TrEMBL record:
Organism: Karstenula rhodostoma CBS 690.94
Gene3D superfamilies in alphabetical order: 3.30.70.100
First and last residue of the signal peptide: none
Pfam families for the chain: ABM
UniProt protein name: ABM domain-containing protein
Domain ABM: 9-101
Amino acid sequence: MASAYKDECEIVATLTPKPGKLDRVVELLTNLTTAVKANEPGVFSFHLYKDFDRESGDEELVLVEKYADKEAYDYHSERPEFKAMHKIFREEELMQKPIVIKSVKPVVGFVR
């Protein structure tokens, strides 16, 4: 594996909002994305995707995040915006299922 990947930390989070709560979750994640872009230089990318081909009927969101290193991820996790968003997720009971978070490292692929 190329050394360019050595310290990078990538996170894939799957969120399943309760029915009717998708727009609220997207709103909160949009606000978080703005804060991350403005305040976290160690975040290389932060993209939210909607899973549009689900047989189950659940509306899932997939958040793909790329950090310079684990320290940048840890910093992100401690940010007040991040903590506030998760507090709202709990208080407003927005999630149908627990958020699934996976830490991944590239094995093979490319970027054009």
